[in-house]
Write a structure and sequence with these properties.
- With 333 residues, the protein is α/β, with parallel strands linked by helices.
- It folds into 3 domains: 2-93, Winged helix-like DNA-binding domain superfamily/Winged helix DNA-binding domain (Arc Repressor Mutant, subunit A); 111-186 and 295-322, D-Maltodextrin-Binding Protein, domain 2; 190-284, D-Maltodextrin-Binding Protein, domain 2 (3-Layer(aba) Sandwich), CATH 3.40.190.290.
- It has 14 helices and 12 strands.
- The strands form 3 sheets. The protein has a 5-stranded mixed beta sheet, sandwiched between helices.
- The longest helix is centred in the N-terminal third of the chain and has 28 residues, at 83-110.
Amino acid sequence: MGYNREVMTIHSPAARIHQAALSRLKMRQLVLLQAIDRHRALNRVATEMHLSQPAITKALREVEDIFGTQLFTRSSRGLAPTPAGQAVLLHAKRWLADLESTSSVLAAIDAGHGGRVRIGVTTQVPQVLLKAALGVLLGQSPRISTFIVEGTTDQLVGRMLERELDCAIGRWYEGDAPAVVQEAIYEQEPRLVVAAHNQKRLSRGPLDWARLAELDWILPPANTPMRRLYNTIFVTAGVSPPVPILETISVRSLEAVLASERNAIAILPREVVDELQRGGLVAPLAQRLNWTLPPVTFFCLRQLAEQPQMRALAAAIRAAAKGMRPSRGAVKE
């Protein structure tokens, strides 16, 4: 009985595909699949890969034979991936990204560095946290070669899932990301911020969302978590969300418009406002908000979570945030 189960397991479709991929699949074939998906026409793929069109057709058939199924369908509009093809393309992108990451790490080590880390940050992460992270990576001997990219939390988590980033500092992520570990570090107090020379005028009176909605708002792009949060705050107050004069996640762009527009206003974390206020161009309004922003969070690929570098990064970010003033409560619905 046990022998039969073992034979069935060995000869199951998944086992056959796994064995075929291990013994026959080549990285160049994964590159081919990506090129076909990108161009959707064999003649353009042939041009890119410097091969004849019959050679491309033969190579595609070989890959489909490895996986035991059709990966692309042909029509008058070109080639399109089948459901099986989409699944293979998703994993092919991750496999090639892992290979590129490994190559970059080895190149960094060959250049005398201690390795390479790719980290993402949201633009509203306080400088003290970023400095703490860089202190860990660049303070080692030998130093860790570091790649940094900015984006929204959704974008950063997406790039982690595609194996394009190793870790990130952003806001708590509510989506489905089982390959990513996230640790909430602390919650931030939001502040209304305007040009410094408009602070006194716009600070008059109590907090009035109807009055605030009439100002010239700078908001995150539509369909981002923070934009949805801000829209909810206005709706909860019985006010239609304003149409912004600027949509951006860039703090520098936000600061420039705040300083030049008489009625411009935005919401930023208190720590970021404190940093900008030192430049003399912007200042917080006197009115205080009675909710907190989603927690600043450290993200790490699950497969890297126990590596000493990642544990040291998380510890440094926690330590840097520890001295920050605690926030005052949860978001009110």
